[in-house]
Amino acid sequence: MSDAKQTAETFSPTAASSIPSAGMDATQRVPAGATEPAEKSTLSTLAVQLVVIPLAVVLFCVALAGLFIWLTTERKGLDDYLNALRASSGQQRSQQAQYLLNYIQDSKRWQGIFDVTAQISADRDRFLATNPHAVADIVQVFQESKGQEPRTRRYLALVLGLLGDRAAVTALRDGLNDGDSETVKNCVWALGRLGDEDSALSIIQLTHNDEPSVRLMAVYVLGSMNTPQADGVLQASLNDPDELVKWNAAFGLANKGSASAWDVLTRLLDKDYVDRVTALMPREGRPLEENIQRYRMAAVACVAKLNPTKARPLLEKMSVTEPDLLVRNAAIQQLNKLNQNRHG
User: Fold this and answer.
1) pLDDT, mean of residues 9-28
2) Structural contact between residues 327 and 276, judged by C-beta atoms closer than 8 angstroms
3) pLDDT tens, 94-117?
4) Helix, strand, coil share (%) of the chain residues, nearest 5
5) For the chain, which residues make up each domain, given as ranges?
6) Cα angle at 318 between 268 and 338, to 5 degrees?
7) Spatial contact of 338 and 312, defined as CB atoms under 8 Å apart
8) pLDDT value of position 294
């Protein structure tokens, strides 16, 4: 882009003065009004300096910002991303798959991977109606990329889950046997997002996978499925060697109303315990602090729902002694709900 140049004009108003004629008597006075043009000229100069020039600078900056926004605004559509994906290969295809994922995840479309509100579902339905070929094209590239650069299939599995079209189910089920654990994990999440109960038995098998991230996603998805075998698998996962798998199994059981999740959930309420176990986790697999907060706030809600009577003294203590203010506030909110239900 060529540099923009600003041309500034300098305005120099000339002050008019009253000059006496050569024949004027020295005793004659110059009328008082003769000095008024000079005063007006001074006011005009001040107005230009204090108002016109600053205003011009502001307008120029606004125009420059508008130009920048116009130049950086995304003008590519889905077809552009799909064409680039089909035309690429190797690492370049992985990059194009990531661009497509970012496009689908854009805040103007779905806000984020785990947001499943009704409004977002409506937006997705409109998007699919406008782009009826999208899922078939992405599935084709997903299948073609098997055994190649693994990141392509990782990203596209998430895209297919976000799009929410059951036409992708067969390809995603096949992805459960992929040699790349991240691709397997993302396919599990996508099938859970699609509500594919028929894949439950295959997902149950993945609760024995060597990779903790795969086991975690498997129990997370099973917690939202109605398959009868899921309850027993989730209870067994409460003894998983990985703490995050245990926690997600407990949430899944709590979601189903099972009291077997109680002990794990109440341990999550203890910040000292959580700090100790997370400090022992490998650095690369350790959850972020804000995610730990979410786990603990979810545990607060779960114990209040599972057994309000037993939860009350725990929440009362947390409302006073809990050092994490967000978690303390969650406990106070649950206590308020319990009190409302008691007096309601």
Assistant:
1) 36
2) no
3) 998 988 888 877 644 444 434 434
4) 70, 0, 30
5) 77-195, 208-344
6) 95
7) yes
8) 94
DSSP string computed for 96-134: HHHHHHHHHH-TTTTSSTT---HHHHHHHHHHHHH-TTH
Architecture of domain 208-344: Alpha Horseshoe (1.25)
The Cα-based distances of 191 to 112, 148, 175, 206, 231 in angstroms read 17, 22, 10, 13, 18
User: How far is the first Cα of the chain from the last one, in angstroms, to the nearest whole number?
Assistant: 67
Residue 279, token pair as written in the block: 């400090």
Q: 40-47 long-range CB contacts below 8 Å, 24 or more apart?
A: 41/13, 41/14, 41/15, 41/16, 42/15, 44/13, 45/13
* pTM of the predicted structure, to 2 decimals: 0.72
HSE-CB of 333 using CA atoms within 13 angstroms: 11
Percentage of residues of the chain with pLDDT beyond 70: 73
How many helices, marked H, and strands, marked E, lie in the chain?
Answer: 18, 0
Q: How many Cα atoms are found within 13 Å in the side-chain-facing hemisphere of 314?
A: 23
- Helices 243-255 and 289-306 pack at an angle, to 10 degrees, of 40
